[in-house]
Specification:
The complex is a heterodimer. Chain A is an all-alpha fold. Helices cover about 80% and strands about 0% of the residues of chain A. In chain B, the strands form three sheets. In chain B, strands 4-3-2-1-7-6-5 form a seven-stranded antiparallel β-sheet. Classes of the chains: A mainly alpha, B alpha/beta.
Amino acid sequence: MLRIIGAILIISGGTLLGLLKSSVLKKRWDGISKILYSLRIMENEISYGKSSMDTIFEKIERLGGLKFSENKHENAGECFSEAVKGEELHLEKEEDEVLRRFCETLGTTDSIVQLKNIKTTIKSLEILEDEAKSGYRKYGKVYRNMGMLIGLLAVIVLM
Amino acid sequence: MLTLAIEEKNEKWSIVRALPEKIRNIIGGISFDGLYEVRMRNGMALALTGEDGIYYVTPKGRVTQNYKDGYIVTEKDIIRGMELITRSSVYAYEDELKNGYITISGGHRVGVCGDVVTNSHEILQMRKVNSLNYRFAREVIGCADGVMNRIVIGDVVNNTLIVSPPMRGKTTMLRDIARQLSVMGKRVSVVDERREIAACTDGVPAFDLGANCDILSGAPKAEGMLFMLRSMSPEVIITDEIGGADDVAAIREIKKRGVKIITTLHDDGGEYPEFESVIFLEGVGKCSEL
């Protein structure tokens, strides 16, 4: 009886690990999509309304993008950076670097330069989003199955 | 959230919130009564302009007349000041920056200068800011009491021009005239190109302009006056500091439609045939000639 319970626990543990690893890939993809969605709202607001950053941040949050209301910064770049850090987006170094460059000049230039900066960031993040998407499609299922199989293998070996 | 957004309208010294924190702390103990300006120049002493001249402020917050003892403004102070006055959104103020000033909440005006990018005949953008001049706006309710009997005769409003050199209170008086006419029940349209008369923030005026006042903020005067004429069916149009030929053409068009105009002008010693009343100002509420 104990053996059966142990085997079930090992298989469940392996499966869970696989699922967790797979969900990290999915969260990275979702995280990049959420930032892209927020940046597209920002691009529209600056292009058509020249709205100030506080108004844009409110709108992004209201429309389901990044959340800004709990961070207290007077500098738009820090505010955006904090909003990204505040959520569990599981971003990797490449995304962090793109966003660091974006935040450095956020709100400090005229609209032409500001929009160019947003467009460049969107392009870079779209490439990374494709990478994250294909990574998830390629490895997500593998991790899920592998987790269970490793659990099963461990049970067989131990028995 | 950007904390400057919580700046309260009508707060007496809301201008303080637009000063960098370091400068705010330095001048925190100084009375602002009678103060006209706070000037920040990169690498120079922090200066205050009051009724009786220019003063400097030491790093410990004491007022001195010796500029060598003054707190030296740093580039960081200027950058922080720009972040605060533009609400960290320079792109949203690029037109104002081309004109050299930004009007902040409370109607206060911050003059900006530094290195600019130009083409052959116009300023395209401000590349680097070196100086900020915070000018205090004041609401003086009733400062137009002494001239209202010249502006409104019976029930008829005269086309009126207020003339004076700079910093004598033209805008302050114009604001009170708008309020008084609005309170009288006249349909008043204010064309507030520099956002100084009503000082709207997010569409809400910082100053009291009465219940019958429509405000168009940020539009060029000539175009704005004709816009209000078409859209709001006003009895009186009020705008500040006319000057160009297109302003005069717009005023003629307005007069043709039977709508009255009240405006201001820097004293140029000229003749003003378009106006029935011309008021020369020596200071807020002090008129030398009617």
